[in-house]
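Problem 12. The chain below contains 137 residues. Write out its predicted structure in token notation.
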Amino acid sequence: MSAKRRPTVGVAIVIQNSLGQVLLGKRAVGWGAGSWCIPCGSVEWGEDVRAAAERELLEETGIQAQAGEVLAVHSNFHDPERLTIGIWFTAQNAKGTPFPVDGELSEIDYFNPSRPPPLSFPTDALVLEQLANMKAN
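Solution.
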């Protein structure tokens, strides 16, 4: 009997500045290297999803924030060998100046959600579109 394959859970906290721009990081390694994404990472075994999102944000950007409301949940099919379920949270009490910390991102900057740079993940485009529509309404 073969083992069942199951998707990994990915998490992200969406940081927005006072202009409504979203913090994105340019991927230095791995899937989509050279394109941009909402800073994210995987939930480790036995880790709470919110704690994982907070840890990943800090590890990648140096920003401390609490995971707030669930902003979006999407299935990621861009890499057929490594399917994921993504959970994006709003940010609460964000502190710090963003900078690439752990080498996974080479650059970090804020972008208008309706005009993002080339993105690594199709689901990030869905989240940015949702944010752009929220800002427009």
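Discussion. The first strand starts at residue 8 and ends at 14. Students who got a different answer should revisit the alignment rule from Section 12.3.
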